Amino acid sequence: MDNAIGAVNKQITVVGNLLLDRNAKTTKLRRRLRGTIAALTQSLDPLDMLWESFGLNRPGQKARPDQPEKPTVVLVDNEAASLQWKRPARAAHYRVWMKVKGVDGEFLPVGSPADLDFTYEKLPPNAEVEFSISAVNPGGESPLSEGVTVRTLPVKGEEV
User: Fold this and answer.
1) 25, CA 20 to 30 Å: which among 8, 87, 90, 116?
2) What is the pTM for the complete model shown?
3) Are 106 and 129 in contact (CB under 8 A)?
4) Which parts of the chain are beta strand (E)?
């Protein structure tokens, strides 16, 4: 038992020393990165695209809005869908995207409301339609929200 306790204590010391070494190297890296950023600040315009080449945000650009949460969708009638979503941080307005499954290869923009809801009319009959939302501000556009899907019914007399 004494040998096991001694081995555990020895390992605790080894891990502690490794953590101290990691923390010292992290501090050194942060200082070097701050120096690099300070040098770039003197050389580059705050909106220069080269900031992004270094993996940094452009300091003169406003932050992009957060990604909207998954919206809710309700089929109003067979030709219209009503969407609602919560306001993400820093959003000025929104972009509504739509994709008809099996027809569209990717999402297409269908509206740009300022409010937290949107109604899309002219849905195709007998189709599965997916909607997504992005938030927009002067800093750019967020990633698309998780998509929501509605299924429209066939027109009367049309085969399923």
Assistant:
1) 8
2) 0.65
3) no
4) 72-77, 80-84, 93-100, 108-111, 117-121, 128-137, 140-141, 148-151
pLDDT 10s digits, 24-55? 999 999 999 999 999 999 999 998 989 988 88
Enumerate the H helices of 113-155 as residue ranges.
Answer: none
pLDDT for residue 157? 64
- CA gap 115, 135 in Å, rounded: 11
Mean pLDDT of the chain: 92
Q: Where in the chain are the domains?
A: 2-53, 72-151
The CATH classification number of 72-151 equals: 2.60.40.10
Q: How far apart are alpha carbons 18 and 11 in whole angstroms?
A: 10
The residue type found at 86 is K
Sheet holding 117-121, edge to edge: 72-77, 80-84, 117-121
